[in-house]
Amino acid sequence: MPLLSSLRSTAANQPVARNGLELTTGGLAPFTPDSISRAGIFETCANPQCRTGWLHLWRSRTRPLFEGRWSCSAECSEALIHDAILRELHGRTVMQPTHRHKIPIGLLMLNQGWITSEQLRNALDAQRRAGSGRLGSWLMRLFGVSEELVTRALALQWNAPVLHLDSFLPGRMSRALPRLFVDAFGALPLRVAGGKILYLAFEERMDTVLALALERMTGLKVECGILPGSEFHAAHKKMLAAEFPRVQLLEAAGETALSRALARQLERVRPAEARLIRVHDCLWLRLWKRRASAPLFPSEEVEDLIASVRI
Ligand SMILES: [Zn+2]
Question: Are residue 83 and residue 18 in the same domain, yes or no?
């Protein structure tokens, strides 16, 4: 079942944020006052195929801005969106994470001297017989191996830090990602440090595709790490209960139909900035309704659209 369909009911019930908590959006160039002041009647339409010519001089249209660029009409917005869709689906600008062979966690713990070979054998047997459960959980359950050691092993496996929950504010960090992604990809945006680094926690497997997408969307450097399982579960539950930006799910029959559908939303909201980023099998369009004078943004001013890319 496609991701969107399976999660549609969850996303449909999302509340819309009301309070004024803010998320640092970092160095997003399109939010600078300079880029906004350039938009307007003296701006050149960003669509290279624009046929409006000088007519747009008579249009009092300063928005929407898409990826920092102004379009003079709904048709031109659609053309910009279409180019962005092609870039995200077929272009080479989207970085793909490199896959490295990972040492199995059991072997890693054995090498560290944290478990014996007999414990590893028994835990693997138990896991095989049960047909479920993570090896680390079986080691904890059968032999009292500490969660801390399992977490350290996972961090070593991924060559990533062990993160902590200090300063974690679910109601603030729910601005970073749509609830659908937090839920479906098991990710937990923990905090923004110094207005530049966003810490993204995972329980066991790190989703580097999501991390790269988040980095492109927010302009922040995203650092991934592992959070101990028990802490992750509790915090993830709190996060899912927080208020998220409004989201709409879209499905379209092809790239052209999708461009039209997304452009319609761009024209409806007329955002001060918008960006389109691919995340696994989804295209994520984020619309910022007003420009930020500082890199802080209340979530009621943000709207997300998520579309399936299986088109
Ligand atoms: Zn135009």
Answer: yes
Q: What is the full per-residue pLDDT of the chain (311 aa) written as tens digits?
A: 455 555 444 444 443 333 333 333 333 343 343 344 444 445 688 888 888 766 555 566 778 889 988 888 889 999 999 999 999 988 755 555 555 678 899 999 999 999 999 999 999 999 999 999 999 999 999 999 999 999 999 999 999 999 999 989 998 899 899 999 999 999 999 999 888 899 999 998 899 999 999 999 988 899 999 999 999 999 999 999 999 999 999 988 889 999 999 999 999 999 999 999 999 989 999 999 887 644 446 666 899 999 987 65
> Is there a domain that residue 100 lies in?
no
Residues 130 and 152 in one domain: yes
Residue 99 covered by a domain:
no
Q: Is residue 228 part of a domain?
A: yes
Q: Virtual CA dihedral for 21, 27, 33, 39, nearest 10 degrees?
A: -110
Residue tagged 């990602």 (tokens): 177
Q: Structure pTM?
A: 0.81
Residues 87 and 137 in one domain: no
Give the DSSP H/E element, type plus range, for residue 270.
Answer: none
Distance 47 CA to ligand 1 centre (A): 5
Asked if residue 127 and residue 176 are part of one domain, the reply reads no
Helix (H, G, I), strand (E, B) or coil at 80: helix
**Cα(75) to centroid(ligand 1), Å:** 7
- The verdict on 85 and 16 lying in the same domain is yes
48 CA to centre of ligand 1 in angstroms: 8
In this structure, is residue 164 part of a structural domain? no
* One domain for residues 109 and 190: no
Core vs surface per residue 210-219: b (16+ CB within 10 A) or e: bbbbbbbbbb
- Please tell me the distance between residue 58's alpha carbon and the centre of ligand 1 in angstroms: 13
| Per-residue tokens: 262 | 């997304």
In angstroms, the CA 57 to CA 52 distance is: 10
Give the structural domain span for 189. 170-241
